[in-house]
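Example 4.3 (complexes with small molecules)
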Amino acid sequence: MAHSSPASPPPDRRDFLAKAAAVVIGSALAVAAPVAGLVVALDPLRRKSAAGGAVQVASLAALPEGGEPRQFPVLATRVDAWNITRNVPVGAVFLQRLKGGAVRAFNASCPHAGCFVGFRADKNCYLCPCHNSTFATDGQVLDRTSPSPRALDELTAEVRNGGEVWVTFRNFRPGEKERIPV
Ligand code: FES
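Answer. The structure with FE2/S2 (inorganic) cluster bound is encoded below.
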């Protein structure tokens, strides 16, 4: 039986904090993502990425073959009239290197309302802390009564230069059965 340390908040409180963090981060990124898409296109250093629609998010060495999915932030460059700010987080992806070497990628935003899902290693599935949607490792909805209207949004991932994992990052409208890019 697991014991909480004296400094840890009780389980109910931890659960609340996890949900609150997922809502806040998910909401902030829903606002930031379209802006980030624009600034990526405007940044000369990212033009190649914008043209191909892909960004480097991890190294292959961080993904053991046949291992669990791991979450990585997706970073972009923000440009306004006065400043260029690099490495601004605009979203997150889960990457998993399958047996055989292929890399599978999902947008970490829940298709229900945009909270970030987490990966539950003990249950080998993705779980959204906001309304408990669960997803299998292939992204499919596990519990048909859960509120997510579709599977996790799979993204195109490829390995370049022998060890860089590049992902074509996209956000899709939450709450829709179909995938509608935003
Ligand atoms: S936002 Fe994920 S289940 Fe509602």
